[in-house]
Give the backbone structure.
Amino acid sequence: MKKILFIAIALVLSACGTNKKVTEVANIDHAAKYAATITAKELGTHLFIYASDEFEGRDTGEPGQKRAIAYLKDFYVSQGIASPIGIDDYFQKVPAEFLNKRKRQVSLKDSENVVAFIKGTEKPDEIVVISAHLDHEGVKNGEIYNGADDDGSGTVAMLEIAQAFQIAGKEGKGPKRSILFLHVTGEEKGLLGSQFYTENPIFPISNTVCDLNIDMIGRIDDRHKSDPNYVYLIGSDKLSTELHKLSEEINKKYTKINLDYKYNDENDPNRFYFRSDHYNFAKLNVPIIFYFNGTHVDYHKPTDTPDKINYELLENRTKLVFHTAWEVANRENKIVADKAEKK
């Protein structure tokens, strides 16, 4: 009798232990787990290369830009992240003919957008775009404009976000919707790479859920020197009430950054809403968020170098974009562009 009782108790305890483990697994916050792979150290490692003199300021179509896109491709290949174009082809060609539609003092050469892709597990035809521009000002009067913040910071943030999603996918937690990592060229020349993509999309614009655009997130502007835990959000409420609300809830839960909407004002004289690559998506009624730290003393100067980046801030801001993308990609229903103009 005692032996039977002992066995029964052991079975109950074993079952309780198993149930506890099941509960613990069920309670894992996967978004937080994979966001933790985004680190200041890795962001810095990338940026000290990407914004180095080797890439000669990444001027559109020039040799330094070609070295920059090779760096981006090599990263995606090393991570096993596929191209949406074809095996080993991560470059969407942007021809000089397109880039020179506007008259220029110096003609631009053929250039490229860099694209990488993680296919959704349940809703693969719905595409979440994460974008940043890969180019900068090049070399002027013998000085290299490295563009560490503009937009090296957004570029390396995308690499870390892509790596986090890829790690999740390898562990069976891939996004339900597909994610396109879109590094666009020619932003400094007039948002040309993103214009080319939206006019020649790899995936139908009608299937594009949103564009999360990252342009300068590594520095602190004068307005926030006393409270640097901030980022400007622009456009989050322009087309989708749902995206704006989701963005705020995600930040409150995970990153707790001061979301500053100063430049979201339609009457803002800087007109930043119209000045980065998200705008070419917004014109087509695709909901967007533009992440931005504001301008600073080194903006568009050769002194915008990687040693001046605040990497802890860059890490947390990058995590905000990751968490927002994770939620958009994994929620049950596609976000609605309830404010979109009917055409």
